[in-house]
UniProtKB/TrEMBL annotation:
GO molecular function: transaminase activity
CDD domains, A to Z: DOPA_deC_like
Family assignment from sequence similarity: Belongs to the group II decarboxylase family.
Protein name stated in the entry: Aspartate aminotransferase family protein
Domain of life according to the entry: Bacteria
Pfam families assigned: Pyridoxal_deC (PF00282)
Keywords tagged on the record: Aminotransferase, Decarboxylase, Lyase, Pyridoxal phosphate, Transferase
Essential cofactor(s): pyridoxal 5'-phosphate
Length: 507
């Protein structure tokens, strides 16, 4: 009689067969062989990417690229990894920018370190979510430990706290939100989280240098303060915030009836790699009793360097700091953090969701990083990549890389200065050089240098960036690769010269 209730052996086997057929794509112990071979095949394509590349870019034009992608029918699935990898190679990998080559000297994209990539395998496979303890356990405490480690390097005490974010723009947004909400709470006794913006908000003013990152203006606009709330203070001749001008601009805004709520200093501007005078700015913020945020998305590299750490003196006085490990710690995207000096102030961001972090939950007993995150709920365990990096390399090796990069930049700056055919615009604290190619017979230097840049881009041999200063077009090197040598840069300058000499003869 029992036979009729219990399933037969065939039925059980049948179910299992059915399972392994239909669910072979689910990450699960029965499918480990599938996972392994898929990763293995994909790794081979990584190998191809590395070995095939001798230049940072294929030079493909956007309209060709667009056609190649457009013509693919997503409703028609492919039958093997081999086919998928072949397709992805053709429309992506072959043309992807190779940031690890010394000929890539364009934007703030660092080469990445192998320990972080090993960590990445676990991040994506185990797929913890960092919002609450019950979705990450050890991950929560490892992230907190890395935040504390970073805070210690900033010179913060155990009163500090923070959270990993998707990037510097998001960390800057957190800095601005804290600045705005803490100001309102303290000075207007107004809770923005509860009650929205106070009437005074239209007069809130935030001071940044005119070379600060554009994300700050964007952030002010999404926060309902409007871009007008951002007051851009002129920089001195080394493109650092001019302190006399800062005081002047603050006085002017107050006379106009506006309300300074904070200052954002940049430690390492995107275009020039210079650090604003942090000590002076901290003093001024303290005099006005307003928030100071430091955007150290790029300059955070200096935190580890015994040789150059002094350039960040004063950062410990800031109320909050943006760190981009994916700019300056050789980490794969995304890896960033927002750190605040006084953890009590972070509570201003806290929201309670009954299903995640109910109000009665004891924060110390059952910690939830979501309490500190303003945008992301479900969030990757990106911190694990930095964990692997520190445990394998130690901060000393990271610091060595940074020192090498800065030293290389100093050598190249000298090289450019000594060469009559080039003009170097300014000094850098970090590793950006803004310069242009000169030809005595050419008056339109903008056209000449734009020509050079486009030639380089479409040949794919070298990728440089560019920027405009006072209406003049300049080329820009950003060095982030410790492997790059002065000889590599010498070759790059020669290629620039070659294209510069062609200007006016070809097209
Ligand atoms: C890159 C950069 C940012 C933005 O960081 P993302 O990680 O790209 O969002 C902010 N500030 C500075 C100075 C930067 O260079």
């Amino acid at each position: 009689m029992n036979n009729e209730i219990l399933p037969h052996e065939e039925v059980i086997n049948d179910t299992l067969n059915h399972f392994s057929g239909k669910f072979e794509n689910i990450f699960h112990q029965d499918n480990y062989d599938h996972y392994r071979s898929a990763i293995h095949d994909t790794l081979d394509l990584v190998g191809t990417f590395l070995h095939r590349n001798d230049k940072p870019f294929s030079g493909i034009e956007a309209k060709t690229m667009k056609k190649m992608v457009q013509h693919i029918d997503l409703n028609q699935k492919l039958s093997s990894y081999e086919e998928v990898l072949k397709e992805v190679d053709e429309i992506y990998v072959q043309h992807a920018t190779a940031f690890h080559l010394p000929q890539y000297v364009a934007h703030l994209n660092c080469p990445i370190v192998i320990p972080a990539l090993a960590g990445e395998i676990l991040v994506s496979a185990i797929n913890s979510s960092q919002d609450t303890y019950d979705q990450s356990a050890g991950g929560t405490f490892m992230e907190r430990k890395l935040i504390d480690w970073t805070a210690e390097r900033l010179g913060y005490t155990t009163e500090s706290d923070g959270v990993f974010t998707a990037g510097g723009s998001q960390s800057n947004l957190m800095g601005l939100v804290m600045m705005r909400d803490v100001f309102s709470q303290k000075n207007l006794n107004h809770n923005i989280k509860q009650d929205g913006l106070p009437p005074e908000a239209s007069r809130f003013r935030i001071f940044i240098s005119d070379k600060a990152h554009f994300s700050n203006s964007k952030n002010a606009s999404i926060m309902g303060l409007g871009e007008k709330s951002i007051v851009k203070v002129p920089t001195d001749n080394e493109f650092r915030m001019d302190i006399t001008m800062l005081q002047k601009y603050m006085k002017r805004e107050i006379l106009l009836g506006n309300i300074p709520i904070g200052i954002i200093a940049t430690a390492g501007t995107t275009d020039f790699g210079n650090v604003d005078p942090l000590e002076d700015i901290a003093n001024i913020a303290a005099q006005h009793n307003i928030w100071m945020h430091v955007d150290a998305a790029y300059g955070c590299a200096l935190l580890l360097s015994a040789k150059y750490r002094h350039l960040l003196n004063g950062i410990e006085k800031a109320d909050s700091v943006t760190i981009d490990y994916h700019k300056s710690f050789f980490q794969p995207i995304s890896s960033s953090a927002f750190i605040v000096k006084n953890k009590r102030e972070l509570r201003i961001l806290k929201h309670h969701a009954d299903y995640l972090n109910p109000a009665e939950m004891d924060e110390e007993e059952i910690p939830a990083q979501i309490n500190k995150s303003i945008i992301q709920s479900t969030r990757r365990f990106d911190a694990l990549k930095l964990w692997f990096t520190l445990r394998m390399m130690g901060q000393e090796q990271l610091a060595e890389y940074t020192d090498r990069i800065i030293d290389l930049t100093k050598d190249v700056a000298e090289m450019i200065t000594e060469n009559q055919e080039f003009e170097l615009l300014t000094h850098t604290d970090l590793s950006v050089l803004v310069f242009r190619y000169l030809r005595s017979d050419i008056e339109d230097l903008n056209a000449l240098n734009l020509h050079v840049k486009m030639k380089l881009f479409y040949s794919g041999e070298i990728l440089v960036a560019s920027t405009k200063v006072d209406g003049q077009f300049y080329l820009k090197f950003t060095f982030l690769n410790p492997i790059t040598t002065t000889e590599d840069v010498h070759q790059i300058l020669n290629t620039i010269k070659k294209h510069g000499e062609d200007f006016g003869t070809t097209n």
